[in-house]
Structures are given as C-alpha cells and as structure tokens.
Amino acid sequence: MQEASAASSTFEVPEPDLTPREIVARAAAMRPELLERQQETEERTFYAQDTHEAFARAGFYRILQPRRFGGHEFDLETYFRVIIEIARGCPSSGWCLCLGGAHVLQVASMYDEAAQADFFGPDGHFVCASYGAPVGVAQPRDDGYVIAGKFSYASGIPYSTHFMGQTLLHPEDPQDPGLMFVIPAEQYERLDDWHGVLGMRGSGSHSIQIDDAWIPASHTARVFMVDLPVEGGTVGSRLHGNPMYAGRTLGFFHGEFGAIMVGSAYAALDEYQRIITSRPATWIPTMKRYELVDYQRYLGEAIAEIACAEAAVIQGAQQWMELARMNVEEDRPFTAEDDARLEALQATACRIAWHAVEGILFRTGGSAGARDGQRMQRYWRDMSTYWSHNTPAQRDFLLTGLGRRRLGLPIVPPGPDPAAS
Fold it and tell me: Are residues 89 and 128 located together in one domain of the fold?
C-alpha cells in the first residue's frame, strides 16, 4: 500500500497523517457491529445513518479522493483492503460503500479543476453512485445539457451527494460516444424500488429519476465511461500530480466486485467455523464437526481458495497502479488489452471466491444454514447476486474478447463470429 502523494491541497485534509494501514484497521474494527446489523440493513435496503456517519468519520469515502480537495489519495490496494473488511462484516454494506466511494477516481481523472471544485463542494465530502450503461437522453441548452431518464442499479445512492451517469446525445448514431455527466443529489429523485431481490438486499442499489435537469457543460465529458481516453495522462493526473488519475476503467470496476466477493467469502468462512465448532457431527453426536478430518479438510480448502482470490484482487490493484504510472511517466500506454486482462483477472478472483462458498462452505455447512435469517444463507444469496450483474453475466464475451485481442483479431459483439460465415 502506498502513502498519499504530496500534491498541494486546496482543502484542509482531515487527519493528514493517517496511513493506509490505519484506515484498513478501522474497517476491520467495524466488522462486529456490521455483522450484528445485517438483518436490519437488508430490511432498510441500505446501511443506517449512523453507520454512514461512522464511515465518513473513518475516512472511507475519501480514500481515493485527491488531497487537493480534502481526500487521503491512497491507492487502489488500500481501497480494496478496506472494502474486503467491510464486506466481511456485511456484504451488502460493503457493496453500498464500495460503489458509492469508488467513482471519485473517474471524476478526479476526467474533469478540470473548476468542475472538481464544484463537485467536492465546501468541505470535500463527496459520494457518487453511478450506472455505466448509456440511458436516457441529453439535449444541448444554454452552454449545458438537459438530462432526462431513469437510471437503475445506482448502488450506493442513498448517501450519495452526486450521481455519475452515461447518456446519449444522438441515440440514432451507433458511433456516438455519448455523454458522461455528474449531477448533484438535489437534481434527481431516488426511487424506493430495491425490494424483492435475491441478495445484496442492503446494497442501496435503487434507481434514480432525472426529469429535465440542466447541468453546465463543464460537468459533462464526451467520453464513454468504460473506455476513458487516458493515454499519456489526463487533465486529472496533471492537476493532482498523480498517475492514479490516468487509469482505465474496467479492471478497476471489476476489482470492486473482487474485493466485495473476497470479503463475502471471508464472512462465510467465519460463519462456517462457528457452525462446525458449535454443532455436533450428524452420525457421531458425541463429537463436534470440527473434530472430524473431513471438516478440517473442507475448512483448509476454503481458506486456500479465498486466499488465492484475495491475492489476485490485490495483485490486480497493484498492476493497475503500475500501468497507470507507466502510462504517464513512461512511453507505455495503458491499453484496452491491459484493461481487459485485469478485468478478467478480477472476474477469475470472483469465481474462485464463489467456488469456496458455493462449492465447499455452503455445501458442507448443513441445511440449518440454508434457512431464512441464517448468515450462511445470506452470504450465498449475496454472492449469487453478483453473478446476475451485467458485467459478470458477460464473462464469456469478456474472455473471448481477451483471446481475440491476443490473436490480433477484431473485437465483435456477442454472437456468431462474422469471420466464420
């Protein structure tokens, strides 16, 4: 984990001497309370106001935020380690925090100093949910744009100060890169529609409705969120003197999921250990399950797989940081192929973490853990829901595209290979 950069500060930085190790320890210390409040978090559909305030005091929303605007400006590894700890206490809370606190990275990369000063406001408190697919429409008006549309799955929106979205200027043009925009909370309505889902019930993944809201052109960018133009540096990397603000999107976005899935797997591991040390063996009721060699092996195998997934997530974060550095400081661009490889790495970490839970811990933990209200069932539901997200749902397309890039073949949309016809 890297210390913050020495970039000049416009805002006062809370706890300027805080270290990455200390902020990760704060996250770990919150696990017991998050664990006890899982059920109420699911029922509310997001974590409580006092939890949000505790996260803010701990500095979690400022981990990736530039010091110039009151952030800690730590690296991706630090952010992912914090999310792993929070998700270990409550996967839903980890998802809600992670996807609300992460998009500061794109905002600090793609917008100029004046726009960033608008976003970060008078005190530097900034939380920004997002939805990456192009939705709705934007109409030019008076040196700005009028935005309209319904944006779903805005995870982290309950405590967001802003929303970052992607919309279209010319929907009829398939080559239109669209418009990435940042809009403050007072210009959208959060809908109470995050109910009836299988898992991540407390992730705050509500929709928002934007009804003809005008924003200045400086709060928009003619870019596609998942394919940002970062080669050689960005306005943000030059402003903040930190190449972290000139990195690509997909490897980072899927790393968020990787951290959440690893933390969730550790939560299931903790629950599994509680189960086998407290429950009698089925056929030998005079013994506890942990005394049987089979359960010892199951536990050991799960530990190894989760450790492997965690190592991949952290290594992916470190590689991302190095590629961003080389993109700015050396003649070595951060390419789309690099990004695809890192995304595939993080997706594979998620698959390994999932196997540890679905294939080992849930399978051998006993039917009692599958009942409503049981933590093992909740972790299985939460991690199952990851697979329904749009990005992992297109895993085959991702891996095919990675292979095609390696072979020098063009990337094609999902479906038959036109070259084969």
Answer: no
Q: Are residues 88 and 162 in the same domain?
A: no
Contact 263, 91 (CB under 8 A): yes
- pLDDT of 99 > 80? The answer is yes
137-186 pLDDT, tens digit per residue, is 999 999 999 999 999 999 999 999 999 999 988 888 877 878 999 999 99
Q: What is the CATH number of the domain that holds 90?
A: 1.10.540.10
| 282 or 395, higher pLDDT | 282
Supply 12's token pair.
């006062």
- Tell which residue, 200, 209, 125, 201, has the closest CA to residue 159: 125
CA atoms of 343 and 347, how far apart (whole Å): 6
Distance CA 71, CA 129 (A): 17
pLDDT digits (tens, 9 = 90+) for 347-377: 999 999 999 999 999 999 999 999 999 999 9
Same-domain check for residues 149 and 28: no
Domain that holds residue 182: 124-225
Cα distances (Å, whole numbers) of residue 113 to 66, 126, 225, 228? 11, 15, 19, 18
25-55 per-position pLDDT tens digit: 999 999 999 999 999 999 999 999 999 999 9
**Residues whose CB is less than 8 angstroms from the CB of residue 124 and which lie 6 or more positions away in sequence, other chains included:** 11, 14, 62, 65, 69, 70, 71
How far is 203 from 381, CA to CA, in rounded Å?
Answer: 13
- Cβ atoms of 68 and 5 closer than 8 Å: no
How many of the other CB atoms lie within 10 Å of CB of 404? 17
DSSP for 105-172, please give it. HHHHHHS-HHHHHHHHTTT----EEEE-S--SEEEE-SSEEEEEEEE---TTGGG-SEEEEEEBS-TT
**Is residue 8, in this structure, part of any structural domain at all?**
no
- Tokens matching residue 62: 């400022």
Angle made by CA atoms 371, 377, 383, in degrees to the nearest 5: 160
At residue 58 the predicted structure's pLDDT band, cuts being 50, 70 and 90, is very high
